[in-house]
């Protein structure tokens, strides 16, 4: 077992035969050496030495006690064709992909206990190497956590089948004294263990979700939707008609039903999963390219912030967008799609359904839904996506 130690570099070699031992030490230099020895002793006793025993600090600085705790379950969901699907849920019955959106305020410390209920056989089937351990984990972007909450194999912070583990996230606030920028933003969480050391199989099976960290005073949305843009031209691992299962009579908001009333503030957490580049584009709406998607009236730099309706998204990226549904454009079925043309052509396209203030779609707003249109010879003008829309690979 290696004992890691941070040792100061020797100074650059000096000309002549003067050895280090010969060199006279100044008072300041002696103090530095003493301080370093004391520091190494302290850190070594409580920190680095403990690393060898697998005992890392349990919580980040500033998070002495969790403000809130919740239970999270990783379960297997019905397959999509032949694809294994997994999901996180606040209960086993409500697991989904994406999983529940985790919302925090800066300064908050959240303890999440993850219960691994994914069958051993399923984890075994997803494993790419028989030597890789079986388990699921919770790895988060953007907020603060210690190695115990890293959610990786190398830090032994994953959950074997049938077991549980508590992860601690700290939404560290901005600190003008230290220059720490804070953690407010749009982030995501995902498995980092299923299949291999990067959780690639867990991610592509559905173990991911959005994280929103707000700063006091941030605008609060009426609705939040996660749109994860991924491989095989997928939105939330679905493509074509499967991206939009909204019932016209009784739409239930969820990962496959993006719906809002006119005037509601709708927030999208946009996540890049997988290996491809994408662009997030929404018809009829635009937003400021800022942390929240908004610019307060009267801010002196308001005019220097670009207003956009399309934003590039790379693997692992995440950002948030807030728009006012139907603002000056009214109710309707507004396309939301990747603007890489061959991606949208292949079914990477869904809808934001904006109803009127009463929650009704006004008459005359019935639409031809390109993603859901049946493949018939007389829909030649509709994109020829239906073959792709039914593929599951
Ligand atoms: Cu794309």
**Low-pLDDT stretches:** 17-26, 32-54, 371-393
Side by side, the strands of the main sheet go 11-19-18-13-16
Measured on Cα atoms, how large is the radius of gyration? 25 Å
Our count of helices gives 5
The strand count comes to: 19
Principal-axes geometry comes out as globular
Following the backbone from N to C, one meets helices and strands in this order, namely: HEEEEHEEEHEEEEEEEEEEEHEH
Report, as a whole number of angstroms, the end-to-end distance: 43 Å
Q: Roughly what percent helix? A: 10-25%
* Share of β-strand residues: 25-35%
Ions, cofactors and other ligands present here are: copper (II) ion
Give the integer mean of the pLDDT values.
85
Biggest beta sheet summary: 5 strands, mixed
Query: Pairing-aware structural class of the strands and helices?
Result: alpha+beta
Condensed summary:
Helix content is 12%, strand content 29%. It is of the alpha+beta class.
How would you describe the overall organization of this protein?
- With 393 residues, the protein is α+β, with helices and mostly antiparallel strands.
- Helices cover 12% and strands 29% of the residues.
- The strands form five sheets. It has a five-stranded mixed beta sheet with strand order 11-19-18-13-16. Strands 2-1-4-6 form a four-stranded mixed beta sheet. The chain has a four-stranded mixed beta sheet with strand order 3-8-7-5, with no helix packed on it.
- The longest helix is centred in the N-terminal third of the chain and has 25 residues, at 27-51.
- The chain starts with 26 loop residues before the first helix and ends with a helix.
- The structure holds copper (II) ion.
- Copper (II) ion (CU) binds at residues 229, 276, 278, 338, 340, 343, 348.
